[in-house]
């Protein structure tokens, strides 16, 4: 399943749609302006919040937190002892971990679980400028979670580049 994400996530308060490969609006990224921390909601087309995304306050390293229905879903941070600057770890609430690695700022990276590919994020197969694709490889994977992970990792990499 392939999704098109318009690369405007750093504009706080911006709302934008994520479309599937047929052009249907599937998810809304709802940016929350005037907050102390970076905050978004990933919603379905009917306005239901699927994933809350926010920056963790008072963390030693920049960390993003995902919640679903008010319950913890995942925590995302740059891998501590990685020789690769673009390597992130996603700690899921159930104790499992996802690895994210590649050229994050170029929008060319992958999300894996236990060495198995879950999603590929890429601009290569798109002709639209300022757009990247999230190709969810496994049918049993959670597209909303993987899109939220991609949004967070890109945000963390952009913040790190600015600092």
Q: Key terms for this structure?
A:
single chain; Porin; mainly beta
Plain-language structure description:
The chain is mostly beta strands. The chain has one domain (2-162): LURP1-related (Porin, Beta Barrel). The chain has one helix spanning 143-162, and strands at residues 2-6, 15-20, 25-31, 39-43, 49-55, 63-68, 71-78, 87-92, 97-103, 108-113, 116-122, 131-136. β8 (87-92) and β9 (97-103) form a beta hairpin.
Binned, the helix content reads 10-25%
Approximately what portion of the residues adopt beta-strand conformation? over 45%
Major β-sheet, in short?
Answer: 12 strands, antiparallel, barrel
Order of helices and strands: EEEEEEEEEEEEH
Task: Kindly give the count of domains.
Answer: 1
CATH architecture: Beta Barrel
Q: Give the strand order, joined by hyphens, for the main sheet.
A: 1-2-3-4-5-6-7-8-9-10-11-12
**Alpha-carbon distance between the two ends:** 35 Å
How many helices? The count is 1
CATH superfamily: LURP1-related
Measured on Cα atoms, how large is the radius of gyration? 15 Å
Q: What structural class should be given to the helix and strand makeup?
A: mainly beta
Please tally the β strands and state the result.
12
**Based on CA inertia axes, which overall geometry fits?**
globular
Briefly, what CATH class? Mainly Beta
- Uncertain parts: none
